[in-house]
Task: inverse folding
């Protein structure tokens, strides 16, 4: 489709006042047009009330309208939602914009007052600076702050940079990951689930029956059961659908960035990713939570990288029909297969 015609079509879609998912898609579509006449349109979406839309518009604007990059970064760094902030921090690292390092140093010093994903991104943003100059004082100060962070995830990220770029082993400063389950709860679960439990994911398009691999990933399965039985998943969308790859859901934000207020540890195994295998989505080691995915075809490249915790027994035709935005109505847990 020609650029001007595409812009007219996207304008028409936006005039119907669609939901945030479609508005974000329109921002991405404007980016594909890649013409100067879309900048003002993207600018309007950049001021959208929904962070998913603002994030999508930011990603396109910093590429198309680089002359105003400073404005976009400063605006996103002050966004009330953490996702645009993370994207701005990532852009600072990607383009090695050293003038922002003092800002990042101030931000990470706020500790738990800012989202852990922001702190992780700030630490990660030091990589290109330290790769260019291992004595970069501002970047090193951020890295030190990362090593002193309360979060295991942030400290580990900092320790990996020390190892990879500075040749120093600081992993003795990384505390063990906290567990939400005490020994008594784990012992009760082992007694209860001598046989693997089962789950039924009830969706708008039908039901998907799973065996949950307690014998392979017990902590992951217990977390999934706890969330399901609390009603956490009720009404949440499948926000990501990639044909012949995966369907992914379980995000309360609906944009791929959400989850419960904690992380769970990875439980790697030699279980293969076959068609219908169920895994935990992460943004790095030990960063799982509530998001899960079902593979639509064998995916050997995921093996030993993402926790396998189940397998579809029935209903793969339902998974095949899922579209972005289709919702989970309820997840039922059973101790025996129907």
Result:
């Amino acid at each position: 489709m020609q650029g001007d015609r595409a812009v007219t079509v996207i304008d028409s879609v936006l005039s119907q006042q669609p939901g945030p998912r479609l508005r974000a898609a329109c921002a991405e579509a404007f980016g594909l047009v890649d013409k100067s006449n879309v900048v003002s349109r993207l600018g309007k979406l950049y001021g959208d009330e929904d962070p998913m839309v603002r994030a999508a518009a930011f990603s396109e604007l910093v590429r198309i309208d680089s002359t105003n990059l400073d404005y976009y970064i400063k605006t996103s760094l002050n966004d009330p939602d953490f996702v645009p902030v993370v994207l701005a921090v990532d852009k600072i690292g990607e383009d090695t914009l050293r003038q922002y390092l003092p800002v990042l140093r101030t931000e990470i010093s706020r500790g738990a007052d800012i989202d852990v994903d922001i702190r992780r991104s700030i630490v990660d943003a030091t990589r290109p600076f330290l790769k260019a100059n291992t004595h970069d004082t501002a970047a090193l100060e951020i890295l030190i702050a990362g090593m002193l962070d309360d979060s295991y995830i942030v400290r580990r990220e900092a320790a990996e940079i020390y190892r990879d770029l500075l040749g120093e082993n600081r992993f003795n400063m990384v505390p063990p990951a906290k567990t939400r389950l005490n020994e008594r709860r784990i012992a009760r679960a082992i007694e209860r689930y001598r046989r693997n439990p089962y789950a039924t994911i009830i969706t708008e398009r039908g039901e998907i029956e799973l065996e949950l691999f307690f014998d392979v990933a017990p902590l992951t399965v217990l977390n999934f059961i706890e969330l399901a039985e609390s009603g956490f998943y009720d009404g949440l969308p499948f926000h990501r659908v990639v044909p012949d790859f995966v369907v992914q859901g379980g995000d309360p934000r609906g944009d791929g960035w959400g989850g419960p207020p904690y992380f769970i540890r990875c439980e790697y195994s030699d279980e293969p990713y076959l068609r219908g295998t169920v895994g935990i989505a992460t943004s790095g080691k030990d960063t799982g939570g509530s998001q899960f995915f079902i593979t639509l075809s064998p995916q050997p490249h995921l093996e030993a990288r993402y926790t396998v915790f189940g397998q579809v027994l029935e209903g793969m035709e339902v998974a095949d029909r899922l579209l972005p935005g289709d919702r989970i109505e309820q997840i039922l847990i059973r101790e025996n297969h129907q």
User: Anything to note?
Assistant: The chain has 14 helices and eight strands. The chain has a mean pLDDT of 94. The beta strands are 198-203, 206-212, 238-242, 246-249, 277-280, 292-295, 308-314, 328-334. The longest helix spans residues 152-166.
